[in-house]
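Protein modeling request. Please complete all fields; requests missing the sequence field cannot be processed.
Requester role: graduate student
Desired output: 3D structure, token encoding
Chains: 1
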Amino acid sequence: MVHASLTATAASSTWLTGFTVCLSLIASIGAQNLFVLRQAVQGEHVRACIAWCVASDALLVALGVAGMAQLLGSSPILAQWLQWGGALFLLGYGLFAWHRALFAPGEGLDASGTRVARGVLGVVGALALITLLNPHVYLDTVVLIGSIGARQDGWLKAVFVLGAACASLTWFVLLALAGRRLQRVFADPRAWRVLDALTGAMMLVLAWWVWRG
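Delivered output (213 residues):
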């Protein structure tokens, strides 16, 4: 009984660690989060976006826990390249958002001002590119979260990854619910211009922060 109690306590503590560490890092303004929020506002393939985000977060954290975090941590040069690459990615994403706000405010709208629907593969494919081509994502999930999970003993590593996946699911469901609340606001095409302008500004600030380390 005592052994079972200690095992349950260790598992719950490890799960909570994975949950809190992951939630503290992903609950911030980022390219992936803004993409999901945008899709939730449009009401377009939101469940598929959430499924992709949770699965990719779990996979990247698991890779870090399995040893990739130690590999990247032992290579300062590679970590530096990831930092610079992440800054450049965020810079490009921000400038692209500003281009939409200033020069293509009607992009994605039909003649009546209604959003043009896209297929699920196109939406998830775009989200996958934003996720996997952003080097800053690897610093967060593989290096930072993965290195903490790698310190867990034996089967508790899997519990840590499960906790991280639950945090990811919780965050993106909340993000989707927030997007649904904003749907009436974004019935006005001008609101999309404001969103793109704010997105560009936030991405440029984040790029500067990542560049400075």
